[in-house]
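Re: the request from the purification team.
They wanted to know what the chain is likely to look like in 3D before they choose a buffer screen. I agreed to run a prediction and write the result into the notebook, where they can find it.
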Amino acid sequence: MLKEHATGDERFYARGGSYSLAQVALAAGGTAVEADLMLTGVAPLQAAGPAEVSFLGNRRYTSALERTRAGAVIIHPDMIKRVPSSAIAIVAAATYEGWARVAMLFHAPPPLSPGIHSTASVASSAKVHSTASVGPFACIEDRVCIGPHCQIGPHVSISSGVVIGAGTRLDAHVSVSHALLGARVHLHPGVRIGQEGFSFARTESGFLTIPQLGRVLIGDDVEIGANSTVDRGSVQDTIIGAGTRIDNLVQIGHNVQLGKCCVIVAQVGISGSTVLGDFVQVGGQAAMAGHLHIGDRAQIGAQAGVISDAPPGAILLGSPAQSRHQFFRQVAILKRLGLRRVLPI
């Protein structure tokens, strides 16, 4: 019978070792009282033991904080009084960031093993940096350039001419064509980059495919989740701005441009030639028509259907998408209409 395991099952996650309270507080960007405490790992509040560090990032879990057995807790200054006497508070204004850095302290990424696996196929004209790692059955075609400290996973396919920047990681079964990737890009398993977009002309005898002659340009520090797809441009480039995070199962159409540090949640579809500004957030299953312009820092709610441009800072909900105030006003009107039908007047 399967048994629930503590955070960081060592079959899958290598653990770095024990660290003093002072070292953990430094990593978290916080402060703590001086104490002779060694910490061996991280765990959630309800499961942590006296030698583990936890955190509170949401006030809804305050009751779990009060009952925790953790040896130390990363906490916002406003919550210090709720920390039990058995735990030491690591006070940090950015608790979630502190937790991320502490978790990385205990579970750092495994070191790269440079070299090309014997089963990989690498074209003679490809340039693979000596510090890069190429996994089993990877296929690297002509004129590909792979920078230093890259990690190319098993069964990855990289088509002719692709350039991959330093420190980039391509997980298993990723395919990349017609693309230039920046530094420290991470493509999760099954990501497809640079395939033809959905573009055709109608004729009297059927459909005529339009050649897709653009590229995909991916900026530094972009992360794209499993089984997401980014089509190459038709006559201009598809662009993913630096620092953008794309969840699993997202479709990015041809000629789309995403600004820097956008967040695109699972199952979003963005139609061709739509432009998103910087720091735009898009909720799960939202959809955007083509040729739109979404302003900087706009927020689009889950399952919204966007069919017109949005100004900077807009908050859109519903389908068709509309401003937050209009959406909730309509919801209130519909509720009142419903009550009138079931209650006597």
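For the purification team: The longest strand covers residues 52-55.
Please add any questions underneath this entry.
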